[in-house]
Amino acid sequence: MTPSTAFLAIALVLLITMAAGLVRVIIGPSPADRMMAAQLLGTSGIAVLLLLAATLGIPALIDVGLIFALLAAVSVAAFTRRRIGQDRS
Question: Could you tell me which of 28, 18, 21 has the C-alpha nearest to residue 49?
């Protein structure tokens, strides 16, 4: 098995976990569950982009993955700030 084939197989497994996370985002019983599933989607998406960058030889996908990582950190901060604001009232 060549490394590119292994990378594509790993990317496929990550896409399957992203599908499971999407189900949790839609039917999650609490907002925290939905946010954790959204973080799973973000992290898995970044991993898929990095695997595809290595497999296809497109270095621009690494930059896109870094931008997604920054957006994921901002979304966690916004969610946490929103939850803290709800607890005060």
Answer: 18
For the beta carbon of residue 43, count every other beta carbon within 10 angstroms.
17
Residue type at 74 in one-letter notation:
V
> What would the pLDDT profile of 31-76 be if each residue is shown by its tens digit?
778 888 888 888 999 999 999 999 999 999 999 999 999 988 888 7
With a CB cutoff of 8 Å and minimum separation 6, the contacts of 22 are 37, 41
Tokens of 37: 């599933």
> In which domain, by residue range, is 56 found?
3-88
Contact 75, 53 (CB under 8 A): no
Tokens of 29: 């019983």
pTM of the model: 0.80
Structural domain count, the chain: 1
